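pinging the channel bc i need a second pair of eyes. not urgent but kinda urgent?? the chain im working w is below, pasted from the shared doc
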Amino acid sequence: MLDPEKMLPPSSYPDIASNLKECQSFLDRKNSELKHLTLRLINQENHAKAKDTQAEKMISRLESMKTEHDSCLQLAEMRKETENVKKKHEAQAMIIDAEMKILKLRMSKTPKVDAVIRNEEIYCQRETLNAKRLAVELYIENYVMSGVLGSGILSFLDKTYAVGEKTNPSDTPNMRILR
């Protein structure tokens, strides 16, 4: 139980009561400050959560932007590669066209040269035949005028000329002369 010696005298009770009131008011103030600080802390915590949510949204948006940017870069690289491949194909096509033109020129050059040579050969053959015909005509004219050659020789010569010139044998100069 309580020891009477340790008990306070009754005269000190009003002081104790006022001290208790002061302590109570101090505790009430501290309690109110604590409530205020708790509310402030809750507000700061809510604010921090909102900022965290906002930061997460920003991170998500930045990640989507990064993904979009990466996609754009990949698309740009693919376009560049496509352009490079297209340019390579165009260059190859140009090279092939140039090679084809060169081959065509070479191929057309050879037949042209061959055709020119053939034309020259045909021309020379015609000129040779013409020269022979002229010589024979002169020879025949000399003998026809002198009456030495007969009509059999003239028809033979007319057939020979017809092979060289593809004309009607009866329409040769010798036959015209004899008519």
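so Residues 20-148 form one domain. and The chain has one domain: 20-148. — does that match what u expected or am i reading it wrong
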